[in-house]
Amino acid sequence: MTRTVLTAANVLSPAADAADVTGFALDQGSGVVIDGGTIVDVLPPGGPAPQGERIVELPGRLVLPGFIDSHVHLLWLGEALGKVELTDARDLGEIQRRLRKARAALGDEGGVVLGRGWLFDAVEGEPTAAMLDEAVPDVPVFLDANDLHSVWVNSAALRAMGITADTPDPLGGRISRDATGAPAGMLYERAGLELAGAHLASLASDDDRDAAIERALAAYSAAGVTSVVDMAMDELAWAALSRCAERRGGRLPVRVAAHWLVADSGDPEQNLAQVARAAEFARDGSPWLRVIGIKLILDGVIDACTATMVRPYADGSNGEPLWPSAALPPVVFAADDARLRIAMHAIGDGASELALDVLEELVDTRERWDRRPRIEHLEVVSAETPARMARIGVTASMQPVHADPAIQDNWRVQLGDERADHGFAWPLFPQAGARLAFSTDAPTAPHHALANLHIATTRGSALQPELPPAQPEYAVPLAAALRHVTLDAAASYGEEHRLGRIRAGYDADLVVLDADPFAEPERSLLDLRVVRTVVAGETVFEA
Q1: What is the dihedral sign for C-alpha 39, 43, 45, 48?
Q2: What is the CA radius of gyration of the chain?
Q3: Domain locations in the chain?
Q4: What whole-number distance in Å separates Cα of residue 452 and Cα of residue 399?
Q5: Structure confidence by residue, pLDDT tens digits, 489-523
Q6: What fold does the segment set 68-74+204-498 form as a domain?
Q7: pTM for this one?
Q8: What is the rounded CA–CA span in Å between residue 472 and residue 458?
């Protein structure tokens, strides 16, 4: 048996019995940790290394279980990494400047200009196609909002999609319109997914999607992420990931579990057919790539006033649920019968109450099994929500990067009251006894694990570190935050028996940082670097 022995590092594992580990060994064959303890347990002091052992010395480094990003969108992230970055474009003039530059790079042959990450408060009033036409009038422009729940397009894009005054709003979506009823340039919620998303998917080839997946996996490996849960899996993304695994002999550099996206079609039979399709894929998975559940999007986002709130927004509007209350239970119960895990997107407090009503009925009335239900985002919740979740074992899946003060101005304006001072209240969930798992929701936010942890532990900004913290009383201690991105994230989908710890018998998924923030508490997490990422005992990234 070949062993790799990591020594002279500080090792942190979310388990009390591993607090003093300074070295451990990995079995290259099985990809699991085979020894853990003090350095003398795994390597006799003095003399050469035993035959068949490889020694890796990591003085001053911190070794952690691999980060688990338990809410991502892999294909979208890979695509986003090739788009014009707009999150830090603070006004319309800067957005237009970047689009002109991107158009010039296309040359005379033209093509499509793709951008991502723009913020609503960078534009005065509702964004329009005419604003984009000023910069790029001749080729289609598609710009994903930072939250990926809206798409801003120019007139050429509207023509390319065939959207006219006669085009109806899709179920659960809206096309912005001018005074005459003509499309004005914004596609909200499912209008963005079903019109812009479908059009762009038709233009992309399998090679394009394969390249996007490779970019996303490489980005996660460099960020120290060893496992992800994809929260909007579909046939195209599954096929691209399957081809990627096939090129690597069946394995991936990042373990992928997935929730199949099920959208309300307005037809109960079609909704159940989507669940049945997810169950088919769940039967064909591997330890590296598998479908474990379904994802239901119950509402939109606060920035566009499409999240469903108990009380209206500052302008008096409210977001309607994207799943009618009568349509939701049959889909949830059918998925549960198929032993598919349930994850529900609920950003507004009204949506999380709708999710809990259904989950309480499910848990209280049906056969018990290890179902691990989850609610995603929970940006604003009612006072009773954490305790309700704890009672029935619902995981709070939350994204610190969504609370970055650099992107909060419009979010706070739309709420307009004390709710803005109680958003992203992460500690309330474990205090009530509910499991809390941190993730990034990339590409709706940066995928970098250390930036995510910086915001979680400081409530400060990773995008603009000079900004003051927002609601620092909701910051999470570093040790707890690390647990939320390792062991708790693994437990959110039933993998805590093999992932999220450095312990004998656990999978050897590790990340090595260039310094130990516990030994240097004054050092910002934003200054740390990932220097090595190990998956199943094999190094997949080395700085």
Answers
A1: negative
A2: 23
A3: 3-65+527-542, 68-74+204-498, 82-203
A4: 8
A5: 999 999 999 999 888 788 889 899 999 898 888 88
A6: TIM Barrel (3.20.20)
A7: 0.89
A8: 6
Instruction: Let me know if 207 is exposed, middle or buried by CB neighbors in 10 A (0-12, 13-18, 19+).
Output: exposed
What number of other Cβ atoms are within 10 A of residue 251's Cβ?
17
Give residues with Cβ within 8 angstroms of 381, minimum separation 6: 349, 352, 425, 428
Mean pLDDT across the chain, nearest whole number? 91
What integer pLDDT is reported at residue 35 of this predicted model?
A: 53
| Cα–Cα distance measured from residue 445 to residue 428, given in angstroms and rounded to the nearest whole number | 23
Nearest to 113 by CA among 121, 122, 104: 104
Determine phi and psi for 282, rounding to 5 degrees: -65, -25
Residues whose CB is less than 8 angstroms from the CB of residue 301 and which lie 6 or more positions away in sequence, other chains included: 147, 149, 150, 307, 347
Q: What is the pLDDT of residue 34?
A: 54
| 137: helix, strand or coil | coil
Contacts with 419 (C-beta within 8 Å, 6 or more apart), sequence order: 311, 380
Phi–psi pair at 140, nearest 5 degrees: -65, 140
Rounded to the nearest angstrom, the gap between the alpha carbon of residue 36 and the centroid of all alpha carbons in its chain is 31
Q: Which residues of 388-416 are buried (b: 16+ CB within 10 A; e: fewer)?
A: bbbebebbbbbbbbbbbbbbbebbbbbbe
CATH of 82-203, one of 3.90.550.10, 3.10.310.70, 3.40.50.1000, 1.20.1250.20: 3.10.310.70
Q: Give the Cα separation of 299 and 309 in Å (integer).
A: 9
Yes or no: say if 462 and 446 are a contact pair by the CB < 8 Å rule: yes
Statement: residue 7 has pLDDT above 80: no
- pLDDT (0 to 100) of residue 505: 81
CB of 252 within 8 A of CB of 85? Answer: no
Under the phi-then-psi rule, with left for phi > 0, alpha for psi from -120 to 50, and beta for the rest, what region is 339?
left
Q: For residue 358, give the nearest of 381, 380, 333, 378 by alpha carbon.
A: 333
Q: Is 3-65+527-542 a domain of CATH 2.30.40.10?
A: yes
Q: Is 7 exposed, middle or buried (0-12, 13-18, 19+ CB in 10 A)?
A: middle
Q: 542, 503, 532, 508: which is closest to 30 by C-alpha?
A: 508
**Token pair for 504:** 């004998």
Structure tokens of 350?
Answer: 């009204």
State both tokens at 121. 């408060």
Question: Residue 262's pLDDT band (boundaries 50, 70, 90)?
Answer: very high
Encoded amino acid at 536, one letter: A
